[in-house]
Design brief:
Blueprint (H helix, E strand, L loop, with lengths): L1 H72 L4 H16 L4 H25 L7 H36 L3 H7 L23
């Protein structure tokens, strides 16, 4: 009878140990899987930001040509032109993370909007310049691509930020020292369409 109790106790011990080991394996697998999801999601956010960066660089490259074209017609708008160039340089040199870059880009967008609105309204003869029209179309295309890239980036950021705040994934996010990504939100003034007239 004593042997039967030992063997029953041993069997119960083995079953309990097996259940504990199985639970540990499941927990470890879940942690590894969640960590890998975070890595994948973070990489998606960084890849989406890199796409935005490509379009921003295209816009940076276009601005000097646009300013030079406008300069020939709008000599009295030197302050506006200087503001655009200063905003471009500040955006290109922005340091301090994504949020600082977004703020600098919003300032540049606002300066470009002001320039185009002033030029279109006060210098209608510029609308006859094919170079200006071409640059304006290129800028419009870049802004459209940038808007699409911004949507893609914000969708990835939303997914990442939501995941790192949800339990139990938030525990792993805390252990990985993950922080929320900043959304690329544009200022209210910039939400208005650029006034492009032909």
């Amino acid at each position: 009878m004593f042997n039967l109790l030992i063997s029953t106790g041993a069997i119960i011990g083995i079953v309990v140990a097996a259940v504990v080991v199985l639970l540990v394996i499941i927990i470890v697998c879940c942690c590894v899987s969640t960590r890998n999801k975070f890595v994948k999601m973070r990489n998606s956010c960084e890849e989406a930001w890199a796409t935005i960066d490509v379009y921003l660089q295209k816009r940076y490259d276009l601005i000097p040509n646009l300013v030079e074209t406008v300069k020939g017609y709008a000599k009295h708008e030197s302050e506006t032109l200087q503001n655009v160039i200063a905003a471009r340089n500040a955006a290109m040199a922005a340091k301090g993370g994504t949020e600082a870059k977004i703020n600098a880009e919003n300032a540049l967008t606002s300066s470009l909007r002001t320039l185009l609105n002033v030029v279109v309204e006060q210098y209608p003869q510029l609308q006859a310049n094919t170079n200006f029209l071409d640059l304006q179309n290129q800028l419009k295309q870049i802004e459209s691509e940038l808007a699409n890239a911004r949507k893609y980036y914000n969708a990835n950021v939303k997914q990442f930020n939501t995941k790192i705040q949800m339990f139990p994934a938030s525990i792993i996010a805390g252990a990985m020292h993950l922080e929320k990504f900043a959304y690329y939100e544009i200022e209210e003034e910039a939400r208005k369409n650029v006034k492009v007239q032909f």
